[in-house]
Design a protein that fits this description.
With 141 residues, this protein is α+β, with helices and mostly antiparallel strands. It has helices spanning 3-44, 101-107, 114-129; strands at residues 53-60, 66-72, 75-82, 85-93. It contains three helices and four strands, in the order αββββαα. Strand 2 (66-72) and strand 3 (75-82) form a beta hairpin.
């Protein structure tokens, strides 16, 4: 091999090294941008950072419709959210201490749970409908 051949191969290696350095610098910049985006997302979610909006609860009513309870500066707003927009259904002051859904499920208090109140309302409605005697007023009874 002559010196000219080695010089030509050396220039090829130098070119590859420059491409590698450029690719590494580009990857480093992309990683820094992604890290900054992740940090901003994390920092915006911290409590006490001026957040005045909190989703208290949400319930699906249909494939595109939801009922959402949102707390805004000490006021609960019940919002109907659908494909066509958002409508305010009800507004009330937020309770002093709002129990989360997990706490109310874990509490197991039959008198205040939704299931117990719903069952009580159904039984009261059933007694009205059935005339209070527990028998259906239909034909053949």
């Amino acid at each position: 091999m002559s010196t000219e051949t080695l010089a030509q191969h050396g220039e090829g290696w130098i070119g590859l090294a420059m491409i590698g350095k450029t690719a590494f610098a580009l990857l480093l910049i992309v990683a820094i941008i992604l890290l900054c985006a992740w940090l901003l997302r994390r920092l915006n979610g911290l409590p006490g950072q001026g957040q005045t909006l909190k989703v208290v609860g949400s319930r699906a009513l249909g494939p595109k419709e939801r009922l959402v309870v949102v707390e805004v500066e000490g006021t609960w707003l019940v919002l109907g959210v659908g494909g066509g927009g958002i409508n305010k259904v009800h507004e009330m002051p937020a309770p002093a201490r709002a129990a989360s859904a997990d706490e109310s499920i874990d509490a197991g208090d039959e008198g205040t749970s939704f299931a117990a109140r719903f069952a009580k309302a159904l039984s009261a409605n059933g007694k009205k409908t059935l005339g209070g005697n527990g028998k259906s007023g239909g034909i053949g009874s």
